[in-house]
Amino acid sequence: MARAADFAIRTQALTKRYGDVGALVDLDLEVAAGEVIGYLGPNGAGKTTTIRLLLGLIRPSSGRAEIFGVDCHRRPVEAHQRVAVVPGEANLWPELTGAETLHLLGQVHGKVDDAYRDELIGRFELDPSKKVRAYSRGNRQKVLLIGALMSRADLLLLDEPTSGLDPLMEQAFRVSVGEARERGQTVFLSSHVLSEVEALCDRVAILRQGRLVESGSLSEMRHLSAVTVEATVAGEMPELGGVSGLSSVAVEGKALRCQVHGPIEPLLTVLMQSGVASLLIREPSLEELFLALYGRNSDHAGEH
Amino acid sequence: MAVSLAPAAGTKPAFRARTVVARRTARRSLRAAVLWGYVFGITVASSAFSYNTIYKTAAERRRLDLVFGANRAVAALFGPAAHLDTVPGFTAYKSSMAVMIIGAVWGLLHSTRLLRGEEDAGRWDLLVSGETTLRQAVIQALSGFAAAAALVWLITFAITAAVGRASSVRIGVQASLYLALALVSSSVIFLAVGTLTSQLAASRRRASSYAGVVLGLSYGLRMVGDAVPGLHWMVWTSPLGWVEELRPLTDPQPLALVPIVAFTFAVALAAVYFAGRRDVGGSILPERSSREARLRTLTGPLGLTFRLMRSSMTSWVVAVAIGGLLVGITAQAAGSTVVGSSVEQVFTRLGAPGFGAKAFLGVIFVILAMTVGFQAATQFGMMRAEEAGGRADHLLVGAVSRSRWFLGWLVAVALSLLASSLAAGLFTWIGASLQGSGVGVGSCLAAGVNIFPPALFILGAGALTIGFLPRLTGAVMYAILGWSTLAELVGGFVAESHWALDTSLFHQMSAAPAVAPNWQTSAVLAGLGVLMAIVGHQALLRRDLEQE
Predict the structure, then answer these.
(1) Please, which residues have CB within 8 angstroms of residue A164's CB and are 6 or more apart in sequence?
(2) Is the pLDDT reported for residue B313 higher than 80?
(3) Global confidence as pTM
(4) Contact (Cβ atoms closer than 8 angstroms) between residue A42 and residue A294
(5) Could A77 and B399 be called an inter-chain contact, meaning their C-beta atoms sit closer than 8 Å?
(6) Looking at the domain that runs over A4-217, which CATH code has it been given?
(7) Suppose A112 and one of A106, A183, A257, B127 were both cysteines; which one would form an S-S bond, judging by CB atoms 3.0 to 4.6 Å apart?
């Protein structure tokens, strides 16, 4: 049986309410040490609330949250010792320089890999002698990223970490997260950039209106959605009315384009009767999964 | 619920787009303008009506005029008094200085908040990216301020004119217009000064500090001009001196409007000129965008707090030291006229019995206590700004506990207040000894230490509030300050208002060096401050951090 300390993050019925509004409701989430997890959801879904609860910055209305087995609310300072954070807003002290900010963040965190910090400054092309006031939004974001990564903390909590970064710097970020993964660090990545989550994460958790609606690996989640089939048959297009699980069917001569929910064999069996000239089966991207999931839930929401 | 964002029927979209800054400035000034117009008007009304209650006979009024009219101590503190044997004379005298100072402070804080503060927050970018330029936007903002000042003037005038119709007051419409104009003048001047410093400085804090220096110098110059025989010409070197020289209701000198208007226009023109010569987000006074890192003191939350407070701390200590020096210089001349006069009664009511430089300095240290109290409110407000701006999160997600962060701020602000208190004592003594007043260094330093506990009390009240209602932290501290200041002003002059004085925080301390400090009372004030801070600390540990 896994011990509490084996989980980088563990929440049990974690709930945060503001009056009657549930910003986060009954969140049960376990993130294993060394895992890279994507945390998805539209604006206001409760992603930042989760991170602020994990950091003890706000108090849970009920439930509990632990970081490496340490209660985030009761022993926040102890919990923070193994965590580094990139917050959602790049609010820094305008009168300090980049170097001073990094020094301060290092002092506050208590440990810094100096060589790695210098490497990151080079990788992200940051001029640390500039005052924060003079930095662009992207450069402020770089300071926060370097500040978190340089600590080599066991758990990285990243809230929209590439906000304001250009594509080259996004690439640098992906390299850095890859390095963290190789070192066995746990990464909790809250992001709207689905391609980034798809490229980096072992697992995704999806929130909607404060509730966890899906959680699993990408391959597991793909079973939840349809695959896209594009086929051309050698003979006449067979009758598809009896095939179960088809939707968005478009037939043009001998070409077929459709979505298949569930097993694909029945469709293949029917197509084989006419001879298959070409066949392309494409799994849904995370973006399609996300949109399908939200479309489905929105429909449900609309029914209430 | 459907929300319409379309312009109202009949308006011209292009015109609306080109005046958006002016309308936004006027709209954001509206509440304050109504408030201050009302406060100014009520100040006039209460002065006018209280006169008949306090000074009932012609003999009492003549005595008041004889004593205060020639009193340099009173002139230094509250401006020259004239025709105090009449309701208009007393009304003008009672209203002018308080309104002049409050109006000037509002003007500079309001303009720097709406200009440099908005620019700091990045919202100015959105406004200037519309159908306007930075220069035009500043012209628009000035128009908005002018509209706000006009509203203050109108409300003050309306209340004054209504009060003036009373048979016991008798202030005519024309005189009411002129009085209201005099009362709003300092606001107008410092709205313009704040607009200029917002172009010069790269941050709101710095813009407010520069405008504050202009205000401090203005007050100091007119004070020396009013207090020291032969130096009256110095009044004409000060914007506040020009306002004073308008002399409403007694001996009107509209000529003094010339430097006021000329200065305001010159400052506004300079602001518009400089706005056209800088980038949005930039400043005229150079600020290096990069420099060598200074890491020695940046060792944690306390080091950071001192770094953040450094310029504020220096400004306050220097301002209090200069203020102390100036009043110290005037103490001997001003205090010599107190003896045997009814000013002595005012000083006695304020807790500084007797006469001479010591009595005068006793009242001065009450004013310095208010100043250091104001410093406590501003500096502790910076802690709330750290939380509201989300910067405190960077510390609290590390190995820094809330207790350590909170205590760091309390210690840093308390040390800053102590430094100002000691500077007040030391520099007042230097000023006083330059004029041979005979007040000892020990007395002055003790008087300086004596103003520290009330400031600690205000700090404690702020700490208590931040624990429970963080968004009200500033409001509570300023409310205590505002009420206590008002109580001192009213209670000092109105014998029947001792209850008001009793509610003033500053009346709880001894008016040293006029009397010996009461260290027991000081310990109680300081102890209450510490107690409130402890309760506030416990509450802070149990609440969510609140960003804005």
Answers:
(1) A90, A136, A137, A138, A140, A141
(2) yes
(3) 0.78
(4) yes
(5) yes
(6) 3.40.50.300
(7) A106
Residue B100: CB partners within 8 Å, gap ≥ 6? Answer: B79, B183, B185, B186, B240, B243, B244
Q: How far apart are CA B168 and CA B165, in angstroms?
A: 8
How much of chain B is helix, strand and coil, in % rounded to 5? 75, 0, 25
Angstrom distance (rounded) from CA A207 to CA A244: 30
Dist CA B284 CA B278 (whole Å): 6
Q: Which residue has the tokens 């010339």?
A: B258
DSSP count for chain A of H helices, then E strands: 10, 14
Cα separation, B250 vs B178, in Å, equals 11
Residues B51, B56: Cα–Cα separation, whole Å: 8
Residue B394 near chain A (CB below 8 Å): yes
Test B393 with A134 for CB contact under 8 angstroms.
no
Name A64's bridge partners.
Answer: A12
Instruction: Tell whether B279 is within 8 A of chain A (Cβ).
Output: no
Q: Do B398 and A130 touch (CB under 8 A)?
A: no
Q: Report the alpha-carbon distance of residue A105 to residue A123 in Å, rounded.
A: 19
Domain boundaries, chain A: 4-217, 226-283
Measured CA distances, B179 to A290, B88, B92, B248 (Å): 68, 10, 8, 5
Give the distance from residue B392's alpha carbon to the nearest chain A alpha carbon, in angstroms: 9
Distance from CA of B466 to the nearest CA of A (A): 15
The answer to whether the Cβ–Cβ distance between A97 and B542 falls below 8 Å is: no
Structure tokens at A89: 């807003």
Which of these, B500, B364, B501, lies nearest to B443 by C-alpha position?
A: B364
End-to-end Cα spacing for chain B: 25
Cα dihedral value B56, B57, B61, B63, nearest 10: -130
What is the distance, to the nearest Å, from the Cα of residue B245 to the centroid of all Cα atoms in its chain? 21
The reply to whether B310 touches chain A by the CB within 8 Å rule is no
Nearest-angstrom CA–CA distance, B160 and B277 = 43
Highest-pLDDT range among A233-237, B201-205, B239-243? B239-243
Question: Could you give the 3-state DSSP secondary structure of residue B231?
Answer: coil
Distance CA B74, CA B72 (A): 5
Query: SS3 letters for B415-451?
Result: HHHHHHHHHHHHHHHHHHHHCCCCCCHHHHHHHHHHC
pLDDT for A255 equals: 94
Residue type, A173: F
Q: How far is CA B386 from the centre of its chain?
A: 23
Residue of chain B minimizing CA distance to A55: B397
Nearest-by-Cβ selection for A131 from B289, B299, B544:
B289
- Residue B129: exposed, middle, or buried by beta-carbon count in 10 A (0-12, 13-18, 19+)? exposed
* C-alpha span between A30 and A5 (Å, rounded): 11
Please give the interface size between A and B, counted as residue pairs whose CB atoms are below 8 Å apart.
101
Position B331 confidence tier, pLDDT thresholds 50, 70, 90: confident
Contacts for B187 with CB less than 8 Å, ≥ 6 apart: B36, B103, B104, B106, B107, B149, B152
List, for residues B446-494, the tens digit of each pLDDT value: 999 999 999 999 999 999 999 999 999 988 998 998 889 878 877 766 6
CB atoms inside a 10 Å sphere around CB A15: 17
Contact indicator for B307, B325 with CB cutoff of 8 Å: no
Which of B120, B397, B545 shows the shortest C-beta gap to A58? B545
